[in-house]
Design a protein that fits this description.
The protein is mostly helical. The protein has four helices and no strands. 54% of the residues lie in helices and 0% in strands.
Length: 79
């Protein structure tokens, strides 16, 4: 298993763009637990997955704002 601090390459075959493994797992878990996997949650997870490094809530907010989506810090933390 690759540790987060060791994963510095811009491409990893198991870490493809779009977050498909993470998205698929999140969708399945939400379905099994009876939770909603909202579009905002999907987008936040995709941003985290695609960052290839730790990313903070305010960085996520900046990216969402650049996409025309308004959100407050608590919204990102909950997502």
């Amino acid at each position: 298993m690759i540790k987060a601090q060791e994963h510095t390459t811009p491409y990893c075959p198991d870490h493809d763009s779009g977050g498909s493994p993470a998205i698929a797992t999140a969708e399945r878990l939400c379905r099994e637990l009876g939770l909603r996997f909202t579009e905002l949650r999907r987008r936040v997870l995709t941003l985290v997955w695609d960052s290839h490094k730790p990313i903070g809530a305010y960085d996520i907010l900046d990216k969402l704002g650049g996409e025309g989506k308004a959100a407050a810090p608590p919204t990102v933390y909950r997502a």
